Amino acid sequence: SELIRGFLLSGMPCPSSCPPGLLALMAPGLALMATFSLSSQAGDRRALPVEKPPGVKGRTLILLDVNTKSPVRIISENFLSLQLDPSIIHDGWLDFLSSRRLVTLARGLAPAFLRFAGKRTDFLQFHNVKNPAKSRGGPGPDYYLKNYEDDIVRSDIALDKQKGCKIAQHPDIMLELQREKAAQMHLVLLKEQFSNTYSNLTLTARSLDKLYNFADCSGLHLIFALNALRRNPNNSWNSSNALSLLKYSASKKYNISWELGNEPNNYRTLIGRSVNGSQLGKDYIQLRSLLQLIRTYSRANLYGPNIGRPRKNVIALLEGFMKVAGSTVDAVTWQHYYIDGRVAKVTDFLKTRLLDTLSDQIRKIQKVVNTYTPGKKIWLEGVGATSAGGMNNLSDSYAAGFLWLNTLGLLASQGINVVVRHSFLDHGHNHLVDQNFNPLPDYWLSLLYKRLIGPKVLAIHVAGLQRKPRPGRVIRDKLRIYAHCTSYHNHNYVRGSITLYIINLHRSRKKIKLAGTLRDKIVHQYLLQPYGKDGLHSKSVQLNGQLLAMVDDGTLPELKPRPLRAGRTLVIPPLTMSFYVVKNVNALACRYR
User: Pseudo-torsion of CA 303, 305, 308, 309, nearest 10°?
Assistant: First the structure.
């Protein structure tokens, strides 16, 4: 057995005396997140000393194989999706969604859902007027407002003349004025958020047209969350304003899916009275009935209840909802933020304990859903690194990517069908695109994920070696490996290829030797690292040593891999994220859609 262990750990071919299926026996189970430790059992026992095979030189070597016969999970083609917060009405960015640059960036992440929802969902009123530009309010002196609003009106008139997808090229001075307006509104929005008191917000017919145009031009499917806090005296939902919006959308033949409300567990703090799960379920049934009365939406999808973190009272709300309306919704939704954005530090993003907080939430949600509607799809909506709008130079930096990529891997491995990222563009710092319309590190990470990762999730088998195993020292959680079939939409790779994505939270490099079905295959490396002197705080990234930036407003850069020779050991630099496409594996699980 010692001879066999030596052969395996050195990566040498197994002699004929090896029993078949040894690799699978060494690392059994369908663990999707790779774990590495010499201790084979939990407890205080020390691992047996193992003679170091030649060439290891005291470093950790990990043997990695993937089960290529069948997937363990299949997630949605729209797994990585996006969110826009209604605050973009307040700060004016909604008027700029027709920007060619924004449409190009959003198009890069298609296919996906675009969820229009957030804290202000339940203060949103629809007003069916077409051109309210001259009645808008905002900060600044009169001459500034007049010039700015006149520019918006002229832009709207120009867009109305276009047929099909409406794209605008906004002058730099117009964008500069908008950024000034947004900066002033940012303070107002933050004050509302911290005090948990929100002002009413009006969505006009023209604004809805702009929102839908952006989604449609970008190849995104719009999900619109309706205001659930318009209540009747008996606390039932007042659907009159929602019906007006539904009728207008139907008249335009807009293809939209629907939700009702946002974080209903917080309603008591917002309006002084709560809506329990049973009542919320009745409200959803009422909405489903409304949709069935409108031919355009008689078969529209309905998602909810979009609860917050599943604490005891929230679980009780979800249970009440599922009893009444579990069969009414097409997917059950909740949301999660890892850190309070007001107190976050860069080291927080490197804590494995923080990365793992999501696992417990998934189990709690799945337990309730499977009790009432077994097999019902579950979505995580409104996920972000930090709450309270995020923190500048942290939640919009390279460091935040560790949380984001691990979230994607963890959710896919546990069968969560869709994850909606908050937000594509907004007033805070959790977004993928900043207010200069420049993509941030998490955008590039998301783009790589979309280009390389398919919906079929594969099981990983691993074995590891430590030079000096020490009791109580856990290294496995800092190196995370996930595997999927390579995206069928990527025509650079034939079907049957496999993509690994790896997070190295260690402050030292790690080595991985591909074994079994992955052995001696050509590998394409996509190594994402921070660019410039800011390190983990950087808002720019490099791919295989090349800075990533848009070519022009209508063109994303080519994502060029670094080919590695067949059989080469993968060397994972410290504090990095990377993707590896193993070519021509001819994996049975990946040959067909």
Answer: -90
Instruction: Report which residue type is found at 424.
Output: F
Give yes or no for a contact between 531 and 541, defined as CB atoms under 8 angstroms apart. yes
Give Cα 285 distance to the centre of its chain. Answer: 29
Q: Which of these, 321, 193, 199, lies nearest to 260 by C-alpha position?
A: 321
Q: How far apart are the C-alpha atoms of 385 and 523, rounded to whole Å?
A: 31
What gap in Å lies between CA 218 and CA 108, rounded to an integer? 8
Would you say 525 and 493 are in contact if contact means Cβ atoms under 8 Å apart?
no
Which is nearest to 377 in space by CA: 281, 314, 453, 301? 301
Q: Which residues contact 164 (CB under 8 A, 6 or more apart)?
A: none
Q: H-type helices in 327-464, by residue range?
A: 352-355, 357-372, 400-413, 441-452
Sole residue written with tokens 């630099």: 573
Q: CA 465 to CA 60: how far, in whole Å?
A: 5
What is the pLDDT, as a whole number, of residue 185? 86
Select from 444, 461, 464, 453 the least CA-distant residue to 500.
453
CA-to-CA distance for 328 and 179, rounded, in angstroms? 42
Is residue 122 within 8 A of residue 242, CB to CB? The reply is no
Q: Which residue has the tokens 């990566």?
A: 11
Q: Which domains does the chain have, with CATH numbers?
A: 63-129+155-590 (3.20.20.80)
Q: What letter does residue 349 receive in the DSSP assignment?
A: G
Cα(301)–Cα(329) distance, rounded to whole angstroms? 8
pLDDT digits (tens, 9 = 90+) for 398-411: 999 999 999 999 99
Q: Which residues contact 7 (CB under 8 A, 6 or more apart)?
A: 13, 14, 15, 18
Q: Sort strands 418-422 and 460-465 into parallel, antiparallel or unpaired.
A: unpaired
Q: Which residues of the chain have pLDDT under 50?
A: 1-58, 132-145, 465-475
